[in-house]
UniProtKB/TrEMBL annotation, chains A, B:
Keywords on record: Amino-acid biosynthesis, ATP-binding, Cytoplasm, Kinase, Nucleotide-binding, Threonine biosynthesis, Transferase
Domain GHMP kinase C-terminal: start-end pairs: 221-297
A Pfam family the protein falls into: GHMP_kinases_C
SUPFAM superfamilies: GHMP Kinase, C-terminal domain (SSF55060), Ribosomal protein S5 domain 2-like (SSF54211)
NCBIfam families: PRK01212.1-4, thrB
Species whose genome carries this gene: Prosthecochloris ethylica
Gene Ontology MF annotations: homoserine kinase activity
Gene3D superfamilies: 3.30.230.10, GHMP kinase, C-terminal domain
Catalytic class of the enzyme: transferase
Protein name as annotated: Homoserine kinase
Binding locations of ATP: 100-110
Amino acid sequence: MKTVTGFASATIGNVACGFDVLGFAIREPGDEVILTLHDSEPSTSPVSIKAIHGDGGALPKDPKKNTSSFVVLKFLEYLRTHKDIDFQGHIELELRKNLPLSSGMGSSAASAAAALAAANELLGSPCTKMELVHFAIEGERVACGSAHADNAAPAMLGNFILIRSYNPLDLVTIPPPQHLYCTLAHPHIEVRTAYARSVLPRTIPLKTATEQWGNVGALVSGLLTSDYELIGRSLVDVVAEPKRAPLIPGFYDVKNAALEAGALGCSIAGSGPSVFAFSSSKETAEQVGSAMKEAFSTIEERLDADIWVSPVCHEGARTL
Amino acid sequence: MKTVTGFASATIGNVACGFDVLGFAIREPGDEVILTLHDSEPSTSPVSIKAIHGDGGALPKDPKKNTSSFVVLKFLEYLRTHKDIDFQGHIELELRKNLPLSSGMGSSAASAAAALAAANELLGSPCTKMELVHFAIEGERVACGSAHADNAAPAMLGNFILIRSYNPLDLVTIPPPQHLYCTLAHPHIEVRTAYARSVLPRTIPLKTATEQWGNVGALVSGLLTSDYELIGRSLVDVVAEPKRAPLIPGFYDVKNAALEAGALGCSIAGSGPSVFAFSSSKETAEQVGSAMKEAFSTIEERLDADIWVSPVCHEGARTL
């Protein structure tokens, strides 16, 4: 019997102009997955779920339907077909869900990445993190119906991850500037990813698209050259934010509050309802957090919001 | 009487995925503009055109309609309204047109930038290059009906220039990797910018747009980190190239020839008909040029093509 605990943190996808192509990991909060290896052969599935904490009973316990166990099953299948490793034992999985569901914080990706980091170490680290990313992305299909990578990839690899292409998968790691801090505000409402996707148009004007990709290029340049002002000017989303903002009560109040408190820029985290902002110092990022919390609490809906301040995580998923 | 000669080189706009937002300058060929300052007051216009060489009589000689003189008039107007410099003399302009017209090589932008570099020095350098860029962009409106900046800005400033925003104008300079070479092939046909623009769709699928901006981000990352392979993989245009390729006889034959000869990537220069390719050495870039010339010459239309091999120009417009 051997036990390994995996950890992966919250990630923010759809980074303003980087809709569907750019995400990054923060250091905390994150999900923990504890895997225990038993030598005995499994009765039905090689992976079973022992317990899930912190989800309020919302997540499925069927190993094929729960993201964290599903990705471990995919990992084992890959070992058998690609690495000639035929796993005969049984893995018991315990999930400590610290990230809120449907929050825009990459909750399912964190569970998947944590499970994969643990499973890989449990079996002697046969895979690289880049190989594991593929299973983490497959997990997103189970969790929300679409195998998007902008949470799964940074949850596994850390840093900013740009998805140049899905087919073949081509990921570009962009290390964050040294003094970049993220403030994340999670208001206590849920927005389903599938619904947030349904409000988007299927086609957009070429002029709008051009504006968006000018900002994507500039954001990447700002990140790579530590040009904080340019990062701020590039955090513009003319495609998804205008459509999704109405799903988040008080979004523009919160955004304005963040900018007035000194944030470089502010937009919707993933598909919402969380809102993120960047600042060029920890002190400013904390003031921005207070301003965002205050703004959520004073709108008509008087929303309570959790606030986290964190640098971008370099490390990605790891074992504890 | 004082004479100054300005020079600005060819530029390539619409760099594959960077449609309307990314352009770069090469070192040669380029246009020359010779300005001569006379102290006598002008009879009608403060700028007159003395001669134009190399245009086959195609360019207008009315100072308000010719791009190179028009931008000098705009520059003088700006000096009067913003710098309190009331120019009382008369400038005579001679244009040595070395770039072919309607070629996709930024011909009008080169004339404008060369004229502005000369005019600024002639009057004691009252403006920065960044101020001059605005007039060069205005020149594009006269030349082709749209004030696009992806030729005018690199013609003036050199390097790769990313246009983050037009309003306000926000330009990001991206210095090229040390060993990046451009091969430019100009087949002897003309494609009018306005016509090449008319074949583009007004709206595009969101999925297509997302693919394009993933490539834009990756291209900027490749350029800034000297990742030549990534530059090659990112030189993908799923928006304009498929629509404009039919305007260039043999485009895909030429592109395939370039790639087979070792180019990192290949696409249409500006709105065509010129085709550019990147390579990671001068030797390869020259082989690529031979392959492109050969490919143009063996299609049914048997097109002759001029070939230039050049690194990216750091300097931008200058005086000789």
